[in-house]
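Project outcomes to date are best conveyed with an example. Our students and postdoctoral researchers have been running inverse folding experiments weekly, and each run begins with a structure described purely in tokens. The record below, which covers 318 residues, was selected by the lab manager from last quarter's runs and is presented without edits.
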């Protein structure tokens, strides 16, 4: 198959490109700064010559959007919104204009669309969309609005011959450098892998190989449309999540951090505490109902596999 991945140069795009290319597919990456073969220039906002790559393709997987790893200032939140909505909108325009439109358009979304909660898990049928929770920072609601607008841009696109799926993805855990797992592992090695603000907030995650397998599953299943949660079936509290990561990597101690300490750390890392403090308890209801089987459903085994692969990559590099 010919697969086009707008915004495919980040961590998730790298994971998909590597796996789909290895499987024998023709993968084309749309990026603002093409540097390699198979990369095509686009601006993420306007139609251009890049649309030729979409015409005649089999699958489009749109990952484009400003990274969430930044301070959540008003300007950065607006950039997140604009980059996601505009890129989804122009991908829809390219598909609409195509003489041979792709069969399926997978549009990246986020599990952050669901409410900050501890009492029950959020699946697609009964999950609570966030934005109105009491006792959380007001700007957390803007993150939810970004997710809703992102999905709406895809839903409103006039692409009657192309099936549309919104990927409400949890954090994708891969051994790649600078990915989220790499950052968490480094924190643990520095002794900072303890509970944050008590550690009761839930962490939703998905192993990189299950992420790829779920994307392949959704491409093949022509009867599935709409929002799909891409998350392992066993989210767990942050204190347990980091404890299992420390065990997998042989790190005995992780210092706890208070909320204000987390705020200082996030400031130093040019990130935001929402990524640490929001309780994301998300489960893959529709994937499980449709018969998808996870290779890594539990975090302890997934963490052990990822640590093993990190160590193997370092041995090869040396």
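After processing, the design step wrote out the following sequence:
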């Amino acid at each position: 198959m010919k697969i086009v991945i707008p915004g495919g140069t980040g961590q998730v795009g790298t994971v998909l490109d590597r796996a789909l290319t290895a499987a024998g597919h023709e993968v084309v990456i749309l990026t603002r700064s093409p540097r390699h073969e198979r990369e095509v220039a686009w601006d993420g906002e306007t139609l251009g010559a890049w649309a030729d790559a979409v015409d005649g393709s089999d699958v489009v997987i749109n990952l484009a959007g400003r990274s969430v790893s930044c301070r959540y200032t008003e300007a950065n939140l607006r950039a997140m919104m604009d980059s996601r909505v505009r890129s989804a909108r122009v991908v829809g325009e390219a598909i609409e204009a195509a003489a041979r439109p792709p069969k399926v358009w997978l549009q990246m979304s986020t599990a952050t669309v669901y409410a900050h909660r501890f009492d029950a898990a959020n699946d697609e049928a009964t999950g609570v969309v966030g934005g109105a929770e009491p006792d959380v920072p007001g700007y957390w609601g803007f993150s939810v609005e970004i997710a809703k607008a992102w999905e709406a841009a895809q839903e409103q696109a006039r692409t009657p011959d192309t099936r549309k799926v919104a990927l409400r993805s949890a954090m994708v855990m891969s051994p790649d450098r600078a990915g989220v797992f790499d950052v968490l592992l480094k924190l643990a090695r520095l002794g900072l892998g303890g509970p944050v603000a008590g550690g009761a907030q839930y962490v939703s995650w998905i192993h990189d190989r299950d992420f790829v397998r779920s994307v392949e599953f959704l491409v093949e299943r022509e009867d599935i449309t709409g929002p799909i949660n891409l998350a392992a079936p066993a989210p767990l509290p942050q204190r347990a999540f980091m404890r299992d990561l420390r065990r997998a990597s042989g790190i005995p101690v992780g210092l706890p951090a208070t909320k204000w300490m987390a705020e200082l750390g996030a400031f130093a890392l040019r990130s935001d505490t929402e990524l640490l403090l929001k309780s994301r308890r998300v489960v893959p209801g529709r994937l499980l109902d449709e018969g998808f089987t996870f290779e890594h459903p539990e975090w302890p085994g997934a963490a052990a596999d990822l640590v093993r692969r990190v160590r193997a990559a370092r041995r090869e590099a040396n």
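The longest strand covers residues 163-169. The mean pLDDT is 94. The training component of this project remains on track.
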